[in-house]
Amino acid sequence: MASTSAASGGVGGREPLSALIHGRARLLLLSHLMSYPGGRTFTELKGAVGLTDGTLSVHLSKLEAGGMVEIRKEFVGKKPRTLVRMTTGGKRRFEAYVDELRRLVPGLAEPE
Questions:
Q1: Domain boundaries along the sequence of the chain
Q2: How far apart (Å, rounded) are the C-alpha atoms in residues 106 and 108?
Q3: What does CATH list as the number for 18-103?
Q4: Backbone phi, then psi, for 11, in 5-degree steps?
Q5: Average pLDDT per run of 10 along the chain, which is 112 residues long?
Q6: Is 62 in contact with 20 (CB distance < 8 Å)?
Q7: How far is the C-alpha of 38 from the C-alpha of 105, rounded, in Å?
Q8: What's the rounded Cα separation, in Å, for the pair 104 and 23?
Q9: Are 67 and 90 in contact (CB under 8 A)?
Q10: Order of strands, edge to edge, in the sheet holding 40-41?
Q11: Of 89, 72, 73, whose CA–CA distance to 21 is shortest?
């Protein structure tokens, strides 16, 4: 039986979908962030995607390590605020992921 793992090169000699993006939580986070070029706060993201603080933090750390998002911690008055936004490279990679998904899923059309 043929494998499409990263070790075998996947479809066309490469991994067909980025594992960094493809997970449910990270896909939700990135999809949400694409609509907010200025970024969203940790609290806003938590409410939008319905993750716990710990789960959100772990996924954001992975996305940051992968260069998909930028995380900035600041204070507004005396209150800490964590702002998350997509990087330019992250946006390009996400768009390429969506294009690849369209190629792999029959009938998944380009938006009009």
A1: 18-103
A2: 6
A3: 1.10.10.10
A4: -70, 130
A5: 38 68 93 96 96 96 97 94 97 94 81 62
A6: yes
A7: 31
A8: 16
A9: yes
A10: 40-41, 79-86, 69-76
A11: 89
